[in-house]
Backbone:
């Protein structure tokens, strides 16, 4: 519930792990979880669930993503210790994709113009890097974020082009692997499996690609 979300969040962001409902400070924070928390906060805001409290949480998680972004490498860090020191040179592709998903959700769904503007600027700076990724899940997370983003910024040609490219990549791996009795993208199931299908469903509907 919302109280637990508050217990897990301080002025930096949401903690990565907890002992029951007590934050585990030794594990610090990660961009992955702050991206997830930002998506949740925006969705709760749409439901008008404690709007002032939720807006404050969303601002904290968005600030974490902004801090995590390295403007020179144009990539997100992932792991931050309790002393606010980054523990990695560069986060994973999945972490970057989840950040794109969260930022796109802010742009597409937040009722607060200032929040949308900040998220839109960071989204635009972070998006081109995903074209160099090889992780299908990073493609999928990014596609869902692009879908949310284009609800509001309909004429963004760069976002449209990236959506087209990533959609084609997912379709290509599906067509390469799928066979009768195994309608899937990969030869095994691992993690976040539903997001691969989710990304193609929303992208296909939005672009009229029936296949």
Residues:
């Amino acid at each position: 519930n919302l109280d637990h979300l508050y217990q897990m969040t301080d002025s930096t962001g949401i903690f990565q792990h907890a002992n029951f409902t007590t934050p585990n400070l030794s594990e610090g924070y990660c961009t992955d979880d702050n991206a997830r928390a930002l998506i949740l906060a925006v969705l709760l805001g749409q439901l008008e669930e404690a709007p002032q409290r939720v807006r404050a949480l969303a601002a904290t998680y968005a600030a974490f993503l902004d801090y995590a972004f390295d403007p020179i490498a144009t990539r997100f860090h992932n792991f931050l210790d309790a002393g606010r020191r980054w523990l990695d040179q560069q986060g994973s592709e999945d972490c970057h994709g989840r950040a794109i998903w969260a930022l796109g959700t802010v742009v597409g769904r937040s009722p607060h113009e200032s929040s949308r503007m900040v998220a839109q600027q960071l989204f635009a700076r972070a998006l081109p890097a995903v074209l160099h990724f090889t992780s299908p899940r990073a493609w999928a997370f990014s596609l869902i974020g692009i879908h949310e983003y284009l609800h509001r910024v309909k004429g963004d040609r760069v976002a449209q082009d990236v959506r087209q490219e990533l959609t084609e990549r997912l379709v290509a791996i599906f067509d390469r692997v799928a066979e009768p009795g195994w309608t899937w993208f990969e030869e095994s199931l691992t993690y976040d499996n539903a997001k691969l299908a989710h990304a193609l469903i929303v992208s296909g509907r939005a672009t009229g690609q029936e296949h």
